[in-house]
Every structure is written in structure tokens, then in C-alpha cells.
Design a protein that fits this description.
- It contains seven helices and 13 strands.
- A four-stranded mixed β-sheet has the order 11-10-9-12. Strands 3-6-13 form a three-stranded antiparallel β-sheet, with no helix packed on it. It has a two-stranded antiparallel sheet with strand order 1-2.
- The longest helix is centred in the middle third of the chain and has 10 residues.
- Bound molecules: calcium ion (2 copies).
């Protein structure tokens, strides 16, 4: 296959301003601060100093006046509003110690992170003489379907900082299809509208996101974002113990509250405090500021479950799979019902597009159009 023409690896200041004016979101957190470091002169910058007031991040409409600014608690009731949530965090440019802390509420809108484009290595391989354990993309637990390791070049895109919540799904569809829905209590924890929506099929996701002008991430985009520059087994490191505090898995807490049983692998060494899914953002974010890319609920990706040597579309890396050959769409990231091995960055799962289960949710993405 001919090498695709390289998309822009870093958005320019001009790009950022154009996207911002078109109603897309900007977030500065971790490595993203680099991508947004030129944003100090964003139009409507009068709101930038508000980020610290009240201890919570302000959001506003870039290009609008200060009175147009919203905050993270502003309910979003119309699909168009999902596009105008702008995160102002130019403080990250000035104060590297400032940490973005969004105050999430059940009515919180989508928060999109600008994922800078770039080249990365998709997948994993077993250790060998040239690539011993500890080398990038080397994973003794990998299955054959996670390779061969392949370099993929991606254009910048937006990805939700959190899994889509039950509240967001309900606002846009009028329904909450979740098996473990808001109001119920399991393992001593009350499920709220801030918990991730689940029991949604790939087809449901396509329909709902389509109405909002959003998409599911491609498998390549998902892994690139989940790795956030790392080549380790999990974004937290090569040892599963590094997941403590960073992931909600099938853990000792779940076992003590009734999970487990024959044939169910549980990380008994771990205590994450949740039997089922946790409210989104309860665990540490990765280097891109994304929460729950390891665990909580599995996340649908856009692609058919195809082999890595099949060609991909330049820009977003969507795999070109002859549909007759496969029946499943890709699922990534592991969940509260699975052990650490399923939450590896390279781990691939799949399901038929009409299936929806209590372990399975989504993370919306947004295309950056020229
Ligand atoms: Ca758990
Ligand atoms: Ca997840």
C-alpha cells in the first residue's frame, strides 16, 4: 500500500482558532497543553482568567463575548449546544502546576479533548531477542490478533474526556437503556446519571451520535488516545499493579460484594471500590487527560474487527475491511467485569453491531473538518 499523505501532525494556532470559531472544543491538560500553548490569544479571551474562580473550570463559547460563557454545570438540552462547549484553560500555559479539575454534574455536557495528530505504533508483540520485555509495544500477554505492530499516522481529532454518561444519553434520546441505571444501588454505591451509559448497541451509538454530529473513534484513534504516548502494556506501566487508582476492574471489592465465581477472573490484589461501573472520571486520567480508557465500561469503536495488515484510511486510520469477512465491530478498554488483561492498551474485543450489554458503552469523538 502506498504511504498515505501525511496529515498535519500538530494543529497550528490558525487551525486552533478556526476550529474554535466553528464551535469545537479546546482543552489543555497534560501533553495537550503543548498543542494549545499558542491559545493565549484566543478570541473572547476575557473569560480565560475565570478558570480559577470558584475552583472549577469555566467553559465558554470561543468567539463570543464573556456573557456567552457557560460553566461545566450548564445543562445541554439541544444537540447543537454539544458543539459549543469550549473549555478555556489558557492558565495551563502560564502555570504548569495548575491542574484542570472539572466539576462534573449529572447534567454535564460532553467535554472534548483535542488529540494532537501524529504517528504511533498500533498493537503489541510478544517479547523476542530484538524486543525484550520492557520494550515499547512488547506485551507477553498479547494475542496474535493484536499484531503485527503497525505504524499509523493520524490527523488531529477530538475525543471525549469521559465515557458518555447515562445523563447525556437520556438528554439526547429521552431514554436510559442502561442495565444498571441511575437510582439503583449495587455494592453500596448508588448509580447516578454520571455513570456511563451501557447496554447500547453499536447501531444505537451510530444513530445517536449521528444526530449530534459526532462519531465513534476508529480503533487506531482509540488506541493512540489510550496510550497517550506510552508503549507500555497499560498507560500506567508494564505491571498491572500500576492500575490501582487508575482503573475500575473486576477487583477484590467486587469479589467481596458478590462478583466472581467459577471461571471469572478477578484481580483480588486490587481494591477500586466498585462492584459495577463508577461515575465517569472517578479514576486518574492518562497523559491526554482521558479518564477510564482502562476499565469501567468497554467502549465501542467504529471499525469492523479486521486484521492489522488490512489497509487503513489516511487521516483517521479506519480499517478497510471487506464486510463479508467479519461480523463484529471493535470493542476496547476492558471493564468493571473483566481483569487487567482485558484493559491492556492493545487488547481487542469485538461484538456484533446489534449487541448491547451491561459492560459496554462508548466514548464519542468529533471529526475536525477543514
Ligand atoms: Ca471494580
Ligand atoms: Ca472504559
Amino acid at each position: 500500500m502506498a504511504a498515505p499523505s501525511a496529515p498535519p501532525l500538530r494543529p497550528s494556532r490558525r487551525d486552533l482558532l478556526r476550529w474554535a470559531a466553528a464551535g469545537t472544543a479546546l482543552v489543555a491538560a497534560g501533553p495537550i497543553a503543548t498543542a494549545c500553548s499558542s491559545s493565549a490569544a484566543l478570541p473572547g479571551g476575557a473569560t480565560s482568567g475565570a478558570a480559577r474562580r470558584g475552583g472549577r473550570l469555566r467553559v465558554g463559547i470561543v468567539g463570543g463575548s464573556a456573557k456567552d460563557s457557560l460553566d461545566a454545570h450548564t445543562p445541554v438540552t439541544h444537540p447543537d449546544e454539544a458543539r459549543v462547549i469550549q473549555l478555556y484553560d489558557t492558565l495551563a500555559t502560564y502555570d504548569t502546576n495548575f491542574r484542570v479539575q472539572l466539576a462534573l454534574a449529572e447534567e454535564t455536557a460532553f467535554v472534548f479533548v483535542l488529540i494532537p495528530g501524529g504517528a504511533f505504533r498500533l498493537g503489541a508483540m510478544r517479547p523476542n531477542d530484538r524486543n525484550p520485555e520492557g520494550s515499547p509495544n512488547v506485551d507477553p500477554q498479547t494475542s496474535g490478533e493484536e499484531g503485527p505492530v503497525k505504524e499509523v499516522v493520524l490527523a488531529p481529532f477530538f475525543l471525549s474526556k469521559y465515557e458518555m454518561t447515562q445523563g447525556q444519553w437520556r438528554r439526547f434520546t429521552g431514554k436510559n437503556p442502561s442495565q444498571y441505571g441511575a437510582g439503583a444501588t449495587f455494592g453500596g454505591k448508588k448509580i447516578s446519571l454520571l455513570n456511563p451509559v451501557e447496554q447500547v448497541s453499536w447501531e444505537d451509538c451510530q444513530e445517536v451520535l449521528g444526530h449530534l454530529g459526532l462519531v465513534l473513534p476508529t480503533e487506531a484513534q482509540w488506541e493512540y488516545a489510550a496510550r497517550a504516548g506510552t508503549g507500555t502494556v497499560w498507560w500506567t506501566g508494564d505491571k498491572k499493579e500500576t492500575l490501582q487508582g487508575a482503573a475500575n476492574l473486576a477487583d477484590g471489592f467486587a469479589r467481596r460484594n458478590g462478583a466472581g465465581g467459577a471461571g471469572w477472573t478477578v484481580e483480588d490484589w486490587m481494591d477500586d471500590g466498585y462492584l459495577l461501573h463508577a461515575p465517569v472520571g472517578s479514576f486518574k486520567p492518562n497523559g491526554f487527560g482521558l479518564h477510564d480508557v482502562a476499565g469501567n465500561v468497554h467502549e465501542w469503536c467504529r471499525d469492523w474487527y479486521g486484521e492489522y495488515d488490512m489497509p487503513v484510511r489516511p487521516g483517521d486510520g479506519e480499517r478497510r475491511v471487506p464486510v463479508r469477512e467479519v461480523q463484529d465491530r471493535v470493542i476496547r478498554g476492558g471493564s468493571y467485569g473483566k481483569p487487567a488483561v482485558s484493559a491492556r492498551s492493545a487488547y481487542r474485543g469485538g461484538s456484533t453491531p446489534g449487541y448491547g450489554g451491561g459492560l459496554l458503552g462508548l466514548r464519542p469523538a468529533m471529526v475536525i473538518t477543514k
